[in-house]
Amino acid sequence: MANVAPFAPGVMKVEYSQTLGGATNIINRMFYSFTGALASTGAANIASTVNGYWAASLSPHLTAHHSLISVKVTDLGSAQGAVGEVVGTAVGTIPIAGFLPAKDCVVNHATINRRYRGGKPRWYQSGFTQSNLVDNQHWDSTFIGTWEAAFNTFAKDLLSYSGGGVTITNIVNLSLVSGYTWHESTLPSGNVKWEKVPTYRAQALTDVVSDWVADSVVGSQRRRGTNG
């Protein structure tokens, strides 16, 4: 069997593209299991619904420097899986003054039942202000509790969705890789190069996400240094 990533029938990927001032490459993803057959129009309807959930639950906690610019829903069941996308209209409502750069994030950790080696799924969210900090390394306890509740509301709202022949059942973590092997190759210079090559599963594995817990320690997305 070829070492290629498997499809994930009954799973959709929801991508949230955002900007924070000059930082225009902020993308988060969440995965949901579903029953039924997803069409492109249905995927677009879900994307539009998600945009509304973001505006209601998350925008009130983000600065006006932050915008959700698009939501894209993709059926991962096949190469021809339905895709639907809408332009986001959710803008943060907190005044811009004292905004933090895109690299400074709240890290939301997913709670799942399966134990395994490696990092659990996380969501890194930027768009906050210095007033949300208690010091340079920690978020204010009241703020982080409020954000955690708002984020869980946002993530779980979609679990009530049923329409267009589709019913969303769970938030899931999607695992496509069972492990890694090291591959040796020789460069034109004669030097040896070692690469870590993933071993893909024969079938995608999903784990139900029951909750999201927000970390009180300020997280960092080191590759995102733009703070315009």
Q: Can you offer a commentary on this structure?
A:
- A hairpin with a 5-residue loop joins strand 8 (166-186) and strand 9 (192-208).
- This protein has one domain.
- The strands form two sheets. Strands 1, 2, 3, 4, 7, 8 and 9 form a seven-stranded antiparallel sheet that branches.
- Helix 1 runs antiparallel to helix 2 (141-157).
- The mean pLDDT is 92.
- The chain has two helices and eleven strands.
- Helices cover 15% and strands 44% of the residues.
- With 228 residues, the protein is α+β, with helices and mostly antiparallel strands.
Structural key phrases:
228 residues; alpha+beta; four-stranded antiparallel sheet; 2 helices; 15% helix
Itemize the secondary structure elements and their pairings.
Elements: E1 11-20, E2 23-36, H1 40-57, E3 66-75, E4 83-91, E5 104-111, E6 122-125, H2 141-157, E7 162-163, E8 166-186, E9 192-208, E10 211-214, E11 219-220
Antiparallel strand pairs: 1-2, 1-3, 2-8, 3-4, 5-6, 5-10, 5-11, 7-8, 8-9
Give the structure's gist in a few sentences:
Helix content is 15%, strand content 44%. The chain has 228 residues and is an alpha+beta fold.
